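@channel anyone free to eyeball this complex?
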Amino acid sequence: MNSRRHLEILKSVVRKSERKIALVVLDGVAGYRTTNNPVTELEAARTPSLDRLARRGSLGRVIPAIQGLAVGSGPGHLGLFGYDPTDPMNEIGRGVLEAVGIDYPLKKHEISGRGSFVTLDRTGAIVDLKGGGITDGECKRVCARMQAAVAEPIDGVQIKVLPVRDHRFCIILDGEGLSSALLDTDPERTGVPPFQPRGTDDSISTRRTMTIFAIAVTRMLDAICVEPKANGFVLRGFSRDPGLENLQTRWGIRAAAIASQPLYRGVAKMVGMTPIPTGHSIADAFRALFGAWNDFDFFYVHIKKTDLAGEEGDRAGKIAAIEETDRFIESLDSRLDDVIVVTGDHATPPQMRAHSFHPVPLLIASPFCDVDDANRYTERESIRGSIGTVRACEVMQLALAHSGRLRRYGA
Amino acid sequence: MNSRRHLEILKSVVRKSERKIALVVLDGVAGYRTTNNPVTELEAARTPSLDRLARRGSLGRVIPAIQGLAVGSGPGHLGLFGYDPTDPMNEIGRGVLEAVGIDYPLKKHEISGRGSFVTLDRTGAIVDLKGGGITDGECKRVCARMQAAVAEPIDGVQIKVLPVRDHRFCIILDGEGLSSALLDTDPERTGVPPFQPRGTDDSISTRRTMTIFAIAVTRMLDAICVEPKANGFVLRGFSRDPGLENLQTRWGIRAAAIASQPLYRGVAKMVGMTPIPTGHSIADAFRALFGAWNDFDFFYVHIKKTDLAGEEGDRAGKIAAIEETDRFIESLDSRLDDVIVVTGDHATPPQMRAHSFHPVPLLIASPFCDVDDANRYTERESIRGSIGTVRACEVMQLALAHSGRLRRYGA
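replying in thread with the prediction:
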């Protein structure tokens, strides 16, 4: 695979630098123009600080993964951190994302699956895929009930049942020599029972894992059969930590993550970032950033509000979130000798109320950037920026280059 | 190869949609500007309908296969259909293209080679590479003569000799267990005899095929040795149908091909499109398109005139072909909820009278497209379009994304 070879080359030319790199990710920030709405949220927002940064910086655009593909936050962020999310080596399973999303300290050998409570009828067929809409509290109670049923290890394997939210939970298999080659038990429709546990291969390890798992499933189902709503469950995305090379090893940088939500913090931890304690507000994020400024080389700052507004179709809210972020961007603008990168993990156009495939504007300000003709951090201006269109997994190497951390390759 | 993995990912997120996709391929439509000719044919043409579509659509540019590479119609179209023509798995041999080019219904097991009649002197050396310029009628007659000489199957293998045009014909080997690992017999110069039949490997299958083939060649040469012009032949591009995954399997779409010429219809059939009967005029093509509109999800419409004019260096003719197409594009403009894609399979600049490596403008109009600042379907405007520069094999996934057929990837 090409990108692996490119990575090898880049790693061979890394050197030290004192310059800091701040990567500000405005979640879902990009949008698109329509005939009736000829300006995007980024264009409509008043952004004096981003404008100033854009004037002295270079602009470009990011394709999160593949042309035409809308990505989730997991692959979107992995890409920005320099890990090609389309490379199977970098794949983070659903189960793992769910575990890191509740701040569970997943160990390398553990298998994690994503669970959903369902309601079963007398014949065992699913009648409700969301467990009758149970509350967080009920979820916690039913999970405790299941946990009690599998309190004893099975063949040395400890089962952990962790409530997530609503009808969702997480199941962890903690033991040696387990396999993650287990199929989903979720038929994704009502009227049929959940699938029996099955493996995707016939190895000894998979067969043993499947046997242990089948025993656990039976015990847990027995424990909840009297529940009025959550009397069954389906499981998906069995996976383990892919063991990604960390940023310190790869680039010799100490990286910090400033993200209040567990999923983002979790992905950042998986690439070796140190999570900095922070609150939910944008002010909290920038306070945490400057509090940690002297202790790290690289900072990932996550701004969630832009995506939330996009998902709700709230154009005004998205504009407000951009403007609020802009006020804090000002504090970065004075760092003329450092590298400031502003981008998003994907587009979330309010018109679509969903993640989309549209390119995301990218801004890099540094002592080495081309002061191009693109003067605002917007979709329109980024088209004529001097960085051009790059894949998300190329952003990290561009940031390193702009910090002077990449030596010349070859004579 | 990266693109295979990307394809796997894209296939994993396909969903249904009611939106139609119309891919209008203006063959060889792109050109380039010179100091003396500062506007291209697309710029010189009056194209009110394309202009309107461009204003509400997104523009970009297509690299047919690899930067700097001019492609033939085969690889050019394969790319636009989403099959990377540089992936050996997608290779369509010359022999196969020749067979589909005369509408021969090539079966999976058959081997096809491309033949050219030559004139041999008494020593057996080639004196004319085009068989003395024989007519279609003579070609047909000489082919029939050769066919009669190999009427009997050889070791169960039926040989078929099919006239194409001028001095060109096609030879088909129809039998079980054949190999296509045969070398060209064409020395590509006069003064030497054609090469003897040889295989490229030493497998049993190749050796058997070669033996059968050598017998056939001897019998056919004996049959035409008395011909005044076409008394010999050379053979190239032995190949079989690569068995491409069809569009229905890959994307769940029913695809129709509207192309009057056999080669285009043949390539379309190889990816599972249903050919719609049509005439040679642009009006015929659009009539066929709307006649089939309700029965398919995807439509490929081929416009040949632009390429023909380009090949002849006929700038005015190319402009006229663009303007003629534009009048029919109007009927697509009202399909606001569908996806209209306009592009070409390669450039054919009249200055070069040949296919060239220049990028080809791309236009996508859909409910989800960014209404960018590019307002005409021209080389100049497409540079500042919001799609950017993509490879031809990314056009299909962009079309699918714009039709809402690709779900989000990852959590």
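from a first look: The two ends of chain B are 25 Å apart (CA to CA).
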